[in-house]
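User: Structure please.
Assistant: Input sequence and predicted structure:
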Amino acid sequence: MGELDLSQDERTLFVELGHHIARLMWQNLGQSDPTIQTQMYDRAESVYEQSCGTMHDLGVYTSSNAGSYRFVMPLDEVRGHLQSAGLYTTYPFKDIIGNFLSAVECQSDISTKRTPFGVPEHLQQAMWAFVQLDYATHEPKGFSWSDNIKPIMIAEFFWSQDGESFQTRQEQADNTLAEDMWNALPKWRRHVLARSMKGKSE
């Protein structure tokens, strides 16, 4: 376990990532318990094991049994705690970034695609911290990931070795399959289906 040696900009991002990892574990494993006292089990799933393990290393969680965690402090004190010096963890900074991306991707709040995307208000600070470190850029259409985050996206299996988003690739394959299926139908059947689907939800 090593001490985190971070620049000022890295510390800003680290604090945001840590807060949101703790929040997501509270929501997903702790059922958003308002007392912050619920016992959280990591379900033996890697994203939860790494998230809870990181929070335990950093003193945000305590653990009495393997795979079981509780908050040491209220959630709104986590940012202040992570600002302090002398924090130790077995997870390098880039692994914490990857862990955040895996945790938040489950909520669909942040896209891992290469196209511009928007984020909810509570994640704006985190995304601007990514921009400050050149992991992302911002333009009128929203945030976009830069090539600097490519090794992390590859390590988390969001991008291929050549930097292509697996999600984008899958969406393209799904669209192609749907188009092929539609075109394989007789024209009269397409008209029947089109009429039956008119006005229905997506």
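The radius of gyration is 21 Å.
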